[in-house]
């Protein structure tokens, strides 16, 4: 997927301006050192093709605030402002399809050292049209990367810190060159963590299993959503460490994320997962998830913020 199109307006340096004018200098500290945190939020078109909903926007911005706190940085905007600005920008951008919102808070100074005590973080938002980031109906072919997942005392994986994404880029780039859709990464302690930009779930003996928050995974908003849906559907779910070989013999497996949505896995390292088709538990959760994000499940409407276009 490459991003050749973008929606016309961005929020940059406190104002809404044309996206093509939202530019930073080559001297920007964040560009040198990855000193930035970001978010990824989806806007979904309702089935009537008229309404749009932003999914769990507050939760995404809470995580952005937590990521900033981990870096010991502050921005002059509160949650309410971030939500209102994003919704206002989406309304001005007049999306014509599902779209993706990328807020980013970055060390904007021309500071030459990687010293986080010397920089100020600015905040910007841009938006792009976005359909599937990974195929959701085809069955993913994954590999286990030999790149080790960053850990909490190196670059915290629980936050969405730009510099940490070198780890994702290496794993994803190598997987793509080898013909895989994505890669799963093992953590420093030898357990499975997550994919390059999505959380991992598997089903064994009727239990839905995902790595715990202390396993060097991003605290995914979709991950939390899926655990809630499993609970509501009466599917037993556990957060526990996962061994590499367990994933080979799982009955079902899938990735979750704002980009990935819920994408089921057909193969890992050449081992077919289950019977190579979407499993019953994955299918049940996937169906409910897509109904929710398009506004067809009243019970979950508090997760949706309407965009009036
Ligand atoms: N892990 C990583 C490394 C990611 O980049 C993402 C995408 N944000 C996820 C998991 C999924 O998180 P979320 O459901 O909040 O999008």
Automatic annotation (TrEMBL):
EC number: 2.6.1.42
Pfam families reported in the protein's UniProt record: Aminotran_4
PROSITE patterns on file: AA_TRANSFER_CLASS_4
Superkingdom field: Bacteria
GO molecular function: L-isoleucine-2-oxoglutarate transaminase activity; L-leucine-2-oxoglutarate transaminase activity; L-valine-2-oxoglutarate transaminase activity
InterPro entries: Aminotrans_IV, Aminotrans_IV_CS, Aminotransferase-like, B_amino_transI, BCAT-like_C, BCAT-like_N, Class-IV_PLP-Dep_Aminotrnsfr
Annotated function: Acts on leucine, isoleucine and valine.
Full protein name: Branched-chain-amino-acid aminotransferase
Protein species of origin: Candidatus Gottesmanbacteria bacterium RIFCSPHIGHO2_02_FULL_39_14
Lineage: Bacteria, Candidatus Gottesmaniibacteriota
Gene (UniProt): ilvE
């Amino acid at each position: 997927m490459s991003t050749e199109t973008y929606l016309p307006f961005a929020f940059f340096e406190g104002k809404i301006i044309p996206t093509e004018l939202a530019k930073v200098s080559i001297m920007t500290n964040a560009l040198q050192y990855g000193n930035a945190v970001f978010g990824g939020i989806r806007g979904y078109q309702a089935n009537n093709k008229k309404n749009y909903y932003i999914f769990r926007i507050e939760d995404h911005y809470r995580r952005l605030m937590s990521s900033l706190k981990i870096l010991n940085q502050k921005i002059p905007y509160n949650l309410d402002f971030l939500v209102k600005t994003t919704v206002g920008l989406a309304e001005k951008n007049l999306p014509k399809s599902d779209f993706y919102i990328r807020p980013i808070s970055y060390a904007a100074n021309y500071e030459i050292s990687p010293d986080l005590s010397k920089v100020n973080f600015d905040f910007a938002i841009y938006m792009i049209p976005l359909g599937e980031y990974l195929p959701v109906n085809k069955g993913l072919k994954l590999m286990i990367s030999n790149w080790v997942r960053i850990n909490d005392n190196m670059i915290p994986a629980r936050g969405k810190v730009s510099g940490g994404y070198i780890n994702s880029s290496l794993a994803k780039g190598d997987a793509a060159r080898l013909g895989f859709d994505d890669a799963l990464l093992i953590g420093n302690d030898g357990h499975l963590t997550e994919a390059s930009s999505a959380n991992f779930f598997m089903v064994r003996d009727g239990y839905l299993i995902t790595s715990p928050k202390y396993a060097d995974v991003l605290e995914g908003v979709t991950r939390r959503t899926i655990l809630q849906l499993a609970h509501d559907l009466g599917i037993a779910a556990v957060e526990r460490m996962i061994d590499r070989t367990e994933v080979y013999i799982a009955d079902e497996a899938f990735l979750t994320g704002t980009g990935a949505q819920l994408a089921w896995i057909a193969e890992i390292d050449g081992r077919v997962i289950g019977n190579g088709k979407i499993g019953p538990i994955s299918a049940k959760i996937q169906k409910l998830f897509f109904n929710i994000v398009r506004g067809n499940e009243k019970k979950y409407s508090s997760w949706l913020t309407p965009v009036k276009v």
